[in-house]
Specification:
Number of helices: 27
Main location: membrane
GO biological process, one term: transmembrane transport
Radius of gyration: 30 Å
Number of strands: 12
Keywords: Membrane, Transmembrane, Transmembrane helix
Strand content: 5-15%
Distance between the termini: 87 Å
Strand order of the largest sheet: 7-8-9-10
Subcellular location: Membrane
Low-confidence stretches: 1-16, 23-36
Helix content: 55-70%
Protein name: STAS domain-containing protein
Oligomer: single chain
Shape: elongated
């Protein structure tokens, strides 16, 4: 968030007019949903104005908005292009695949996005997950993964399953992103030092491989990589040399230079490499003192439907077979993408309200359409969204200018990408993901009000991510973080108080189950009720159902059996109060002056 902080220091005046996106739909959404049928709600969800928000805000667009979006879009593009090239290397792909994803993600979100600051494209998380599931496989697997992830995101939007990301707690998210950052840094150390790439064996194996080969490091790559990291850090803090209070124009200029630091470092490194290559020849062959990116395929690929077979080592692999081989990636990749995108949208939404369903549709379309043009999986990027916010973006149309810059890079600049040193891309990645490290949260999780399961979930997720992989670590962290809510829901808790019922002067012992009563919590309730029945059989027992929000069949049957056991202890009938009307019929309860009791079968007549 360095860019956002600089913006606050730079701009003391109001940020200018902001076009409100989708507010009319949000305002009337709850009202219309309650009055319409399910069929009407479905038709409303297919309304072009809801699914294409550009149709709403483009009517209010003016010249001032266009200028602001142009500045923000160009600034964002200068950040996005070098990052996209670098993120493709994380996924083990040629650099152009990152640009394909940046171009299509930015372009599609212009029409479907609801948050002006969100920038869709390749990210470190998506790149690492892509590598986890497609390493050593043809590029077609990456395209199929993006296509399948998009379909899952569209399905989540259609069935309104965005709430699933709520199962990933803040400690698990922090551990996941911190571990991801460390894995990326470890994987890029080899490129930073000019070492040949080895087979990926996990974080610790990768770091040990680098440490054991330090003597083989290339001096040129090492010096260039470390120099680029130092330069990136220096440019990041450049605006602080001249505070806005001292000279606003100078501070603004330095601020824009800082925002473009990735592009500047890549450009300077490529120019240096080009100069060294053209001036140094070895037997008529141009050489450079560091490893270069190599040839990049120019232009945007033609439209190609992703659902097709691929040949691997002379064997034809069908589309369903590729889906089976991708396994859990078909769920985890879109789930992590949705988590990141919705979190970013909520962070930057002007009114704090996000149309999560529309964001799922937008993200799904970005991936489905992008996969038709050979794009890797995409989601929102927090760093680029912060740059967009700090640049004064007003509408999603700023993404059009970013997409045009990516298209320009693919069409004109790809021959020059050959000269980008790999050590420079490694430096850009290391500097970009270093801010994702959040190890300080461990200290906060060790103090109240954090629970012990929070710290345990963070530790398990972080360690397993580093040892077994990010997909396994995320699942393990989610499982541990769910222990606490499951303990309350499944086991349940019971409190006992004294109370006086209406129309009765006698004091009753009231037993109050909390939250829900499921079959797993029946034993705890039975133990509490029978303990009270034994302790004071002369006082009537009352079961207060006010806080119960769910009741399953096993629990309903157990309640009737429990009432019979209470009666055998001589404590009178078990009285239920604050029972929902629907439960009264299901439990076959009979209303009395004190509350509800279970109906007893009529005694058989002797006649």
């Amino acid at each position: 968030m360095e860019e956002a902080e600089e913006l606050r220091a730079l701009r003391q005046e109001p940020s200018g007019r902001r076009i409100t996106i989708g507010q009319e739909d949000r305002k009337d959404d709850s009202h219309t949903t309650t009055k319409s049928t399910r069929w009407g709600t479905l038709l409303e969800g297919l309304d072009p104005k809801r699914r294409l928000p550009i149709l709403t805000w483009i009517r209010k667009y003016d010249g001032a908005d266009a200028l602001s979006d142009l500045i923000a879009g160009v600034t964002l593009g200068l950040t996005m292009i070098p990052q996209s090239i670098a993120y493709a290397t994380i996924a083990g792909l040629p650099s152009q695949y990152g640009l394909y994803a940046a171009f299509m993600g930015s372009l599609v979100y212009v029409f479907c996005g609801t948050v002006r600051e969100v920038s869709i494209g390749p990210t470190s998380l998506m790149s690492l997950l892509t590598l986890e599931y497609t390493a050593g496989r043809p590029v077609q697997y990456v395209i199929v993964l993006a296509f399948a992830a998009g379909l899952v995101e569209l399905a989540m939007g259609a069935f309104r399953l965005g709430f699933l990301v709520c199962f990933i707690s803040v400690p698990v998210t922090s551990a996941f992103t911190s571990a991801t950052a460390l894995i990326i840094i470890g994987a890029q150390l080899g490129n930073l030092l000019g070492l040949p790439r080895t087979v990926d064996g996990g974080f610790f194996a990768t770091v040990w491989s680098v440490v054991s080969r330090l003597a083989d490091s290339a001096a040129g790559d090492t010096l260039l990589g470390i120099g680029c990291i130092v330069l990136l850090l220096a440019l990041q803090y450049l605006p602080r040399l001249v505070p806005a209070t001292r000279s606003r124009p100078v501070h603004r200029a330095l601020w824009y230079v800082s925002l473009s630091r990735n592009a500047l470092v890549v450009l300077l490194s490529a120019l240096l490499a080009h100069h060294l290559v053209t001036s140094n020849t070895d037997g008529g062959k141009a050489t450079a003192p560091f490893r270069l990116s190599g040839r990049i395929e120019p232009g945007i690929p033609a439209f190609e439907w992703p659902v097709r077979d691929v040949t691997v080592n002379g064997t034809t692999v069908t589309f369903p077979q590729m889906l089976v081989e991708l396994g859990s990636g078909l769920v985890l990749v879109p789930l992590v993408a949705v988590l990141a995108n919705v979190a970013i949208a909520k962070a930057f939404a002007s009114d704090g309200v996000v149309d999560a369903t529309q964001e799922l549709f937008a993200l799904g379309l970005c991936n489905v359409i992008g996969s038709c043009f050979r794009a890797m999986p995409t989601t929102g990027a927090f760093t680029r969204s912060a740059v967009s916010h700090a640049s004064g973006v007003r509408t999603p149309l700023a993404g059009l200018y970013s997409a045009l810059l990516a298209l320009l890079a693919l069409g004109v600049l790809t021959p020059y990408f050959y000269y980008i040193p790999r050590a420079t891309l490694a430096a850009v990645l290391i500097a970009a993901v270093a801010s994702m490290l959040d190890l300080g949260i461990v200290r906060r999780l060790a103090r109240p009000p954090a629970l012990r399961t929070d710290l345990l979930a963070w530790t398990v997720c972080f360690v397993v991510c580093l040892v077994q992989g990010v997909e396994v670590g995320l699942l393990c962290g989610m499982a541990v973080s769910l222990l606490e809510p499951l303990r309350h829901w499944v086991g349940g808790s019971v409190s006992t108080i004294g109370m006086t019922l209406a129309d009765s002067a006698a004091v009753h012992r009231c037993i109050r189950p909390e939250v829900g009563l499921l079959y797993t919590g029946v034993d705890r309730l039975r133990t509490a009720v029978l303990a009270e029945a034994r302790r004071q059989p002369s006082l009537p027992l009352v079961l207060d159902c006010e806080r119960l929000v769910v009741l399953d069949y096993s629990a309903a049957r157990a309640l009737r059996e429990l009432a019979d056991e209470v009666a055998r202890y001589g404590a009178g009938p078990l009285v239920l109060v604050n029972v929902r009307p629907g439960w009264c019929r299901a439990l076959e309860l009979h209303q009395t002056d004190e509350g509800y009791v279970f109906k007893r079968p009529e005694p058989a007549s002797n006649g």
